[in-house]
Specification:
Helices cover 26% and strands 32% of the residues. The two termini are 28 Å apart. β3 and β4 form a beta hairpin. The protein is globular and about 40 Å long.
């Protein structure tokens, strides 16, 4: 269990799959940051992917449920694509419950996960991708210590138009103590990569 100022990160549980399936079938949420076209996610497919996850070595794919006080599930986040030689990994996050958007919960989860990667996993760099049009997401990740590293122009097809794919990263040597939350500041509230936050490219 990892505890932040606003959220608690726990291992993903089977009991959260139904709610998580609702988030994956929310077209507007998926369009916000997914680089792939929204597609229906059947409960059986989600259950099968969860079973596959349980069979994988823990060091390959770290999957957390995001909870708030009282144990309410509001989203999920992951660390995956570990490169042990370069000490890098990718971060993905979804805040699916709209009642918790733009209230600092996503930013708290990102900071907590990055701190975990640096301090306990000995990673030196955490990276992610987000859509170029997702300015609020980019601002939120920047508030959590990420900087834009590369931009692939018109690289993805999003809701009837082409969009950029933005790579952002945070380095351990640049990490600073968590700053106090600012009221009304943006937060990372959608998936940071264009997958269902499951499959490896």
């Amino acid at each position: 269990m990892l505890k932040g100022e606003k959220v608690i990160l726990r291992p993903m549980r089977r009991e959260y799959l139904e709610k998580y399936g609702e988030y994956l079938n929310d077209v507007e949420l998926q369009l916000l940051a997914s680089e792939d076209p929204p597609m229906p996610m059947e409960p059986e497919r989600l259950e099968a992917r969860f079973e596959e996850h349980l069979k994988r070595p823990r060091a390959e794919f770290l999957w957390f449920a995001i909870e708030v006080q009282g144990g309410k599930f509001i989203g999920q986040c992951i660390l995956h694509r570990f490169d042990q030689a370069a000490r890098t990994c990718e971060l993905g996050i979804t805040i699916g419950d709209r009642d918790y958007h733009s209230r600092g919960y996503g930013r708290d989860a990102v900071r907590l996960l990055v701190k975990y990667a640096f301090r306990l996993l000995n990673m030196r760099k955490v990276w992610l991708t987000t859509n170029g049009s997702n300015l609020r997401g980019q601002q939120a990740f920047a508030a959590a210590g990420f900087v834009e590293e590369a931009r692939l122009r018109d690289h993805i097809w999003l809701d009837g138009r082409y969009d950029d794919l933005v790579y952002m990263s945070a380095f351990r040597e640049d990490a600073a103590p968590m700053a106090p939350e600012e009221p009304g500041a943006p937060e990372a509230e959608a998936p940071s990569s264009g997958e269902d936050a499951w499959e490896e490219r």
